[in-house]
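anyone seen this seq b4? input:
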Amino acid sequence: MRMLPPSMRPLVDNLFSSYAYVGLMALITLFVVPIYVHTLGSAQWGSVALCVTIQGFLFSLDIAFGPLMLRDVARAAATANPQTIYARFLRLYATAAFSAFVIAQSVLLLFAQHRSAQGAPMSDDLFRAMCLALLQFLFQFANNAAIGYWNGLEKQRYANLRLAGFACAKHGVALLLLTQWHASATAYMLPFASISILEFILNHRRVRRDRDAITADKNAGKNVAEWRDIAAFGAAAALGFLTAQIDRGFLFIVLPTENYGLYFLISSLLLSLLSLQVPIYRAFVPRMIIATSPRRVAFSMLKISLLLLVLPSLLMAAFPDLVLRLWLHDPTLAAAAALPFRLLMLAMACTAIFSPCAALLLHYHRNRATALINAIILVAQVLVLTILTPRLGMLAGALAWFACGTIQLICAAWIWWRPSPGSN
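predicted toks r here
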């Protein structure tokens, strides 16, 4: 670290801390989750899995807010008061979280009443656990405002330390309750909900303490994304979310369970690799926003992506059978999934190459271009899935991702070739 130029040290520090946090979450999945499964049993763990799945769907709302907050906090930090940005996005996050909470809670109550009327009532434990899961979402989603604030200020090590500390506290208390009190879905969700409330309060108080150290600027609002910008980016982000999920949804309906299970397995590795783009994105976007040459920062981001994501993806694409044999310990499954896995890894490489270009589009407020690219990808994926799935099975899902990557690669070449765009 000492041999690096001073300007690079915060960047490397942020990348390292973000990947360390990702590694911590992976370790929890590998070592702690099996304890949950063993302690709860298959039925109770199924209830927990349902709660976590619903949370995952609700948390996907952040794709519409997170990149905008990262951009606007970074810009305000250089020209105005980032507290103004935090206050506005906190209202946005809180409003979205409360609206989703009310809707989801209403749906849950109606579903529970429907089950009772059908003579198959939902268990009290599952109902309480789902209520706690929604309560956790309410405060955890609002907490993203504080995390986005620190990420935008390039204080990602601080943000990751707080995330890691609270995550360990949640899992630690959950293990204690399950082993020493009562093994139930409610006992699992209770510490996650209660500590999320504490996390939101403490993080909010910590951000507010920065206010005294920053001088307010009457022009601070000029660089804040307006509601029209938020809505436009949100629509583009929603299309992007669909492009990442449509293969699973379609193949789940069409394929036999056994074939879908194998595709779900190998596509999970793709989605895990895609999540590794997030630390790079968060580390470079704040710098890109305030840079005199955003393309130079984007090119640096591309070089890091080539090293950390593209090269490993291409290596796995070159030897898919070997990778799957080592991972699955089943030569038959490895042989069946080798070609789809190769296409998925090639798509991953293309997506990683496109990521710096997506950051440039965010910087220049090119929401229409982002939406158009995602719409073209979505149409191409729908065509590939509907035409090829009856003949090719799960290979069609991999081809849909390959079509996505190919379009992104073409768009990346177009963005690099054309002059710097202006704002919409």
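Residues 266 and 341 are 6 Å apart (CA to CA). The two ends are 40 Å apart (CA to CA). kinda curious what u guys think
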